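User: Structure please.
Assistant: Input sequence and predicted structure:
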Amino acid sequence: MRIGIDLGGTKIEAVVLAPDGAIAFRQRTATPRNDYDATVQVIAALVAEAEHAIGHACTVGVGMPGTISPATGLVKNANSTWLNGRRLHQDVEARLDRPVRLANDANCFALSEASDGAAAGASVVFGVIIGTGCGGGVVVNGAVLTGPNAIAGEWGHNPLPWPDDSERPGPECYCGKRGCLESFISGPGFARDYAVRAGVAIGSIDAAGVVARAAAGDAQATSALDRYAHRVARGLATIVNVVDPDVVVLGGGMSNVPHLYDAVPRQLPQFVFSDAVVTRIVPPRHGDSSGVRGAAWLWSLDEARAITGAARAPRAGAGTAGA
């Protein structure tokens, strides 16, 4: 059995993945924002609760915002900023008293969809998270491509490609630069673009609200959605030009917008350096569960069997993480 933990900015979720891929246990709790020690404690409590429920020790994989720096061993690039500069890997392993594998949440998403999801069987998969932020992960022949700097797939912090004058210099990004792709195609970036063009207060409407207005025929919202799809197509064209994946799987809240699956493939050929573009752009098979499933997939089934065997998990004193 394998436990996957999805360490998100608003929630922390745990699942136990059975050998057949079914979810044998699921629990989630609110993330203790801006409290690093409490975050580690919640992860440990969820693991204890999962093992108590199934009666066996498990391997543990954690999907996280940002990544672990190979240079320092510390968290870097997390938009959950209270994690940055902390020894998350070592602290979680010490708290659980076992080896733990951590990976960027977009890498976990891509691994899940490449393993038994919408891109199963594909050789090269690019998994995209377009929600509160904008991340990406690359899976090649079933293995996550991390890179020596642990930033493979981080397309969101490249500049928006082929910008027009209205897109320069671009919004400020939390990374300290301007015009990052994330500042345009994250959910908040999309909502901000609509608000600026429509003359409404920034923050007065979210991405889902703009999509709903477009569906109701609001011209400004429809234009914002068209601009958004064009920007996603430009961003993905750079990935296709460099990596040339077989499949691109869209995840995160903006992946639920049906318009993208027509508009983005239609516009990709304008920017891809090829006479034809056959890359598939697809929604995730596992939806919001992909990230946490991918965290469990960080350990293979054979590894899980070898490491945990049939060891019983302690039933006394198991922590609780709440509902």
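The radius of gyration is 20 Å.
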